[in-house]
From TrEMBL:
GO molecular function annotation: 4 iron, 4 sulfur cluster binding; catalytic activity; iron ion binding
BP term (GO), one: thiamine biosynthetic process
SMART domains cross-referenced by the UniProt entry: BATS
Keyword Nucleus attached: no
Organism whose genome encodes this protein: Desulfovibrio psychrotolerans
Membrane-spanning intervals of the chain: none
Protein name, UniProt field: Radical SAM core domain-containing protein
Length: 375
């Protein structure tokens, strides 16, 4: 069984309609339950729950402190390549967009790594476009080998891979995987991905599970909020994380909550997700999955990110560039999207401390000094 079976189980269900039918009394009953099921989770995503955000915030804060303490993990992305063979209509790396394409060689990767390491960060996320003939699993693995002396924790956010490719990355020092389904709406997914290997909905949907089977320490899932009705995608994101938590208890499962941002292209989001809606998703997710990590990236503005810290966030990016070679300042390439929080690592740390929380640079050390996980 894969998570596809869970998605198929809801085919024909009117999830936004079910959320509209929820009453305030339903929300209060859900908040009194020690453990929430899928129905209660959807209840907390409903319009009726929007009037009870303070009560949700209090419970979300208590659960976050209980399971994670007052800590926020910090990381930053390193873009290795913006070559892409897909035509995702919402992405700046779309193969049809007329932008300069570039790819870091080993010296460029080393310069980027040294520039990031100088900021004190210890957790790095490697990204590429979807062009495996150029930026292959072997290329990404070699990049990890080049960078692992600087960063005890290396993650990847790249194209969906086969299980043996994830196992190869693990042997190279990668320990975590981030892969967004973008939208769980299958028909919409096909329309948003008109060409390229990413068009395969099921292969992408099952990729996080393949990462779990390969031995990834941390697997991070999510939807790009704004592509579809936000309640439907937030619901399936939580269900996906719950499925992985239950089936792979040895893997830390996390969720990211990215919203659409301006990019090189004309696509406009179909469903705007306001700040209040983003807060509601965050609170509902924390109450539904108390042990799940939650990432808020620099897609969000500094003021909002600071206010979200006590509400369930466990991981934030800092000192971000979404351009290939952007950290060492040796590029003219266009970033994947515009960021909203351009603060330095030090400035983000200061903001976290002002909220009474501790910025954490490192909580992981590969025991063999070479591989993240023995595979």
């Amino acid at each position: 069984m894969s998570f596809l079976r869970v998605v198929q189980g809801y085919e024909g269900a009117d999830i936004p309609g079910a959320a509209q039918a929820v009453t305030e009394a339903d929300v209060r009953r859900a908040l009194e339950k020690p453990v929430l099921g899928p129905d209660e989770y959807l209840t907390l995503l409903s319009p009726a729950a929007a009037g009870l955000l303070e009560a949700m915030a209090q419970r979300a804060n208590a659960l976050s402190v209980q399971h994670f303490g007052r800590t926020i993990q910090l990381f930053t992305p390193l873009y290795l390549s913006n070559h892409c063979t897909n035509q995702c209509v919402y992405c700046g790396f779309n193969a049809r967009n007329d932008i300069a394409r570039t790819m870091l060689d080993e010296e460029g990767i080393l310069r980027e790594g040294e520039a990031i390491a100088a900021s004190g960060l210890k957790q790095l996320l490697l990204l590429t476009g979807d062009a495996p003939r150029r930026a292959s699993a072997e290329y990404i693995g070699q990049a990890a080998r080049t960078l692992r002396d600087f960063f005890p924790s290396l993650g990847v956010e790249v194209f969906a891979m086969r299980e043996e490719e994830y196992a190869h990355l693990l042997r190279c020092g990668v320990d975590s995987l981030t892969l967004f389904q973008e939208t769980y709406n299958r028909s919409l997914y096909a329309a948003l991905h008109p060409a390229g290997p990413k068009r395969d909905y099921t292969f992408r949907l099952d990729a996080p599970e393949r990462g779990c089977r390969a031995g990834m320490r941390l697997v991070n899932v999510g939807a790009l909020l704004g592509l579809d009705d936000w309640r439907r995608d937030a619901f399936f994101t939580g269900m996906h994380a719950r499925y992985l938590q239950k089936k792979y208890p040895q893997t830390d499962v996390a969720v990211s909550l990215p919203r659409m941002r301006p990019h090189a292209g004309a696509f406009q989001p179909a469903s705007l997700v306001g700040d209040r809606e983003l807060v509601q998703i965050l609170l509902a997710l924390r109450i539904f999955l108390p042990r799940c990590g939650i990432t808020i990236s620099t897609r969000e503005p500094a003021v909002l990110r600071d206010h979200l810290i006590p509400l369930g966030v466990t991981r934030m990016s800092a000192g971000v560039s979404t351009a290939v070679g952007g950290h060492a300042g040796e590029t003219e390439s266009v970033g994947q999207f515009e960021i909203s929080d351009p603060r330095s690592v030090e400035e983000v740390c200061d903001a976290i401390r002002r909220r009474g929380y501790q910025p954490v640079f490192k909580d992981w050390e590969p025991l063999d000094g070479v591989c993240a996980v023995a595979v």
